[in-house]
Amino acid sequence: MFIETLIKLGSGDPLLTGFIAGLILLLFTFAGSIPAILGSKISDSVLDTGLGFSAGIMLVAAFTSLLIPGIQIGGIMPVLIGFIMGALTIALIERLSPHEHFIKGYEGPPHLKEKIRVVWLLVLAIIIHNFPEGLAVGSGIAYNFKEGIILALAIGIQDIPEGFAIAIPLVGIKEKVSKALLIAFLSGLSEFIMVFIPILISSYARMLLPILLGFSGGAMIYVVSHEVIPETHRKGYEKYGTIGFMIGFIIMLTLDTIL
């Protein structure tokens, strides 16, 4: 019923539906970051469980809401092309863009490390991590409104622990609360904006939709494998991360089946 209500609010307009879906992502990400910014603390084991949960949801969503629908409407080759392009795009952005992970440290061109403040390096890392999720939701909406809204809700739920996790570095470098909240908002805004790109592209060139679905799936799986799962294994709580992963996997698979 709730999903049908959100679809009705979209009035059959892909851009309006995308706005609603993007707002879900933005609000959930921002809401997840607030407790960390305001000083709430959780154990590393709980945080790794939450990140594992996020990885499980993202992995299932990539297959059931992006790759499989893309194959169904366009065959395997366009989806594979998009998949490879998506993964390579994120890898290239990570290689060429200066950004800072709180645990892994600096990544990107060495000569830019000293020229950009740490806080903005962290912001770039957050945006690189988040924008594939916005692309995924936009591609889902371009394929099917219901699929896109379900995907937005699922990714929104996993954005809560992710939002908390991305806020921790901002607290660690002792940014002002107002500035940390603004950065957390911008991280959600990056997802919101990216929702519209696949919608606009597919509205003018529908034949590209299988490639878009593959691209979004490849980008999201790359982030899961390269960023999220390794993060759950850094502090010795990989069992908790795996439990969270399995729970997220089961929940997303169930939601995709029954809704």
Helix and strand arrangement:
Blueprint: H1 2-9, H2 14-37, H3 44-74, H4 76-96, E1 99-101, E2 105-107, H5 118-143, H6 145-172, H7 177-204, H8 209-231, H9 238-258
Antiparallel strand pairs: 1-2
Question: Can you describe what's shown?
Answer:
This protein is an all-alpha fold and 259 residues long. The chain has one domain (62-258). It is built from 9 helices and 2 strands. Strands 1-2 form a two-stranded antiparallel ribbon. Strand 1 (99-101) and strand 2 (105-107) form a beta hairpin. Helix 1 crosses helix 6, helix 3 packs antiparallel against helix 8 and helix 4 packs across helix 8. It is globular. It starts with a helix and ends with a helix. The mean pLDDT is 86.
Summarize the structure.
It contains nine helices and two strands, in the order H-H-H-H-E-E-H-H-H-H-H.
Descriptive labels:
single chain; 259 residues; mainly alpha; two-stranded antiparallel ribbon; 2 strands; 81% helix; globular
Helix content: over 70%
The biggest beta sheet reads:
2 strands, antiparallel
Q: Strand order of the main beta sheet, please? A: 1-2
What percentage of amino acids are in beta strands? under 5%
- What is the total number of structural domains? 1
Question: Rough shape?
Answer: globular
Radius of gyration: 17 Å
Per DSSP E runs of 2 or more residues, the count of β-strands stands at 2
> How far is the N terminus from the C terminus?
10 Å
Low-confidence spans: pLDDT under 50, at least 5 residues? none
- Overall mean confidence score, pLDDT: 86
How many helix segments?
9
The structural class is mainly alpha
